[in-house]
Fold this protein.
Amino acid sequence: MAEKKGKYTTVSIPVTLYNRIKKLIEGTGFTSVSQYVTYVLREVVAEHEQASQEEPFTEEDKERIIEKLRKLGYI
Amino acid sequence: MVSRPHGGRLVYRVATGKRREALLEEAREVPRLDVGLERAIDLLDIAYGAFSPLEGFLVQEDYISVLEDMRLHDDTPWTIPIVLDVDPAEIPGVSEGDDIALFYDGKPIALMRVEEIYGWDKKRHAQLVYKTVDVNHPGVAKTLARKELLVGGRIDLVGEPPNPFEEVTLWPRETRVLFRERGWKTIAAFQTRNVPHRGHEFVQKAALTFTDGLLVHPLLGWKKKGDYKDEVIIEAYKALIANYFPKNVVVLAGLRMNMHYAGPREAVHHAIVRKNFGATHFIVGRDHAGVGDYYGPYEAWDLFNEFPDLGITPLFIREAFYCKKCGGMATEKTCPHPPEYRIKISGTRIREMLRRGEKPPEYMMRPEVAEVVLKYSNPFVE
């Protein structure tokens, strides 16, 4: 699927949910339903991304790094 | 588990072996752009992954997004624009798609693929990043003095500026391995550009009570006049750690990174960078990365609330003071006594005492730390 261009796009949510959120954010720092939904989604997406972590270096790199850390007295 | 790199992937753009040889050869043939130490330090931070996910200096789309929304174009939080400024006369005939060689002190240190050359509004940049256009702000003064165009594009590091602190310099891949070797799963990082006083020690130990380890991470790089010199900070911390922390709970590592004095935005930036080093928690103190009275003392704390997806937990620890009634360091949350019992641990006052050659009282600064500072005829940046 082609990536969306531009700064914002529209996502549909049920009107009932919209109304609940609108009520929920009254008196909070959130100024719109969109702002709240963006906040919550970023939190959820980050959690999922965190779960799929991979090592950022190879075993060979690791051995070299351990050698350097030993020389510097860190381990 | 240490933190996942920011943006999902730890960047490593340090050319080695045959690839480095080839790039060095190319550097002799392509247009040359000389850069100063600050840009050279940016290059190190990009290449070694401290600025992951950045792979180079920002292109316009990311620059505008960072400036206006504090996020890269792909929505990843990023609060300080990392940009390369040039005068048009420095890159005659260079156009988008060309490679250029970045030289520092007469030697090639990086190859850069020019993806974009664009103009910028320095005043707007200053207003959004520093929340002021007052030229007395060191970050604003620096911004307004920068050159007319920005060049964005990916870099490959082929050389490095000399490093006087080689023995205490670690990069993200190294701290990540180190934390694993020590069996640390939770790491609190402490950013500093000061020698430690008792207030700093208090917040570090407060963080250590619920993390496996502490990363003391002083900035080595450009600082404003009157700040402590890099070597003084490193030596002072060595004295503190040797005398007042248990063995193997602290890693002291210098970070070659420029200070911007951008207050709240820079506090978030500092957290992002420490996430790349593997830290899971980041201590955000009073007036973090601030200067003068440009930012409220706890303004940075509010900005963190705009980033639920930062991926590192900020630790908001109030300023500590010495309470004569408690007989020790305390904060407003832990001490019930009235102001007459409380002594503020003022960094400015300590600096004044040290400048006069006086040792601050022990409730302000550990004697071993003060002795290190007083060994230097001038411990401050001129």
About this structure: The mean pLDDT of chain A is 85.
